[in-house]
Amino acid sequence: MGDSPSQEQIAAARAYEALMVPALFGQWAKTVLDAAGVRPGQRVLDVACGTGVVAREIASRHAAADLVIGLDPNPGMLAVARQLAPAVHWRQGVAESLPFPDRSFDAVVSQFGLMFFDDRIQAVREALRVLVPGGRAAIAVWDALDRIPAYAAEVALLERIGGRQAADALRAPFVLGDRDALAALFANAGATSVAIDTRPGTARFPSARVMVEADLRGWLPVMGVVLSEEQVAAILEESEQVLGPYIASDGTVVFDLSAHIVTATKA
C-alpha cells in the first residue's frame, strides 16, 4: 500500500487534479496511449501517474481497469487517484526501481515525469525491463522553454522578482526539450527503435493570476522554493501584464505549447 498521505499532500493532489490536469495534462493522455499502441486486453503500467489521468484513460478506453497499474512515489497523488478510479491498481514506487518482474507489461507509459527522475537512464532501462519482447514504451516530456513563450515570460518574471532559484524551479519541467539530447538519453539506456514525435497542444488557465499562483504556491514548494508573501504579491501584481498577449477576451489564459512523445520498442 505504501506510506499514508498527509492532509497537505492530499490537498495538493486535489488542487493538481482540479487545476493542472484540465489546464495542461489531460489533453495528452490519448496521444501517449496512441503512441504506445495500447490495445484492449493488454497489461499497461503508468509510471509517475500522479492523480491518474493516463491510467483512467486506459481503463475507460478498454474497460479493463484490472489490467492497468498506476505507480507514483507521492502518497497524496495515489490517494486522489484511488478515489477517482478505485478499480485501477495503484502502487507506490519509483521509476528507477519498478516493483515488478521482468516482462510484466505489454506497454509502459509515462507522462511528464522523466524530467524529475533522479536517474533518467535507469528509469528508461527499468521501463524496458518490465516490457514483454515487442512491447512498447511511450514517454512524454515538454518541449524546450524557448519554444513555449508564455512559460518563458513567466520564468523571466520569477527571476526578476523571486530570484534564480525560483526561476530554475519553473525551468525544470522543460529541461528535456532538446530532441538530440533526448534521443541520446534513450540510446544510452539501451532502447532501440526510438522515435520522437513533437506534437502541438494548448494550455488553458482560468486567469493569469490562477496560473501563476498555482506555480508559486504549488509547484515551487514541491521544488524546495518558498517565496515570501511580499515576493508572491509582487509577482502576481505583474502577472497579467506579463501574460497579456495570452489573455483572451473572457480573461482566460490560452497559449500554444508542445511536447515530445518518445516511443521505443523492446527487442
From TrEMBL:
InterPro entries assigned to the protein according to its UniProt record, in alphabetical order: Methyltransf_11, SAM-dependent_MTases_sf
GO molecular function list: S-adenosylmethionine-dependent methyltransferase activity
Domain of life: Bacteria
Example GO biological process: methylation
Coiled coil: none
Record domain Methyltransferase type: where: 45-139
Keyword Methyltransferase: yes
Record-linked Gene3D superfamilies: Vaccinia Virus protein VP39
SUPFAM superfamilies xrefs: S-adenosyl-L-methionine-dependent methyltransferases
Protein name per Swiss-Prot or TrEMBL: Methyltransferase type 11
Organism: Sulfurifustis variabilis
Keyword annotations from UniProtKB, A to Z: Methyltransferase, Transferase
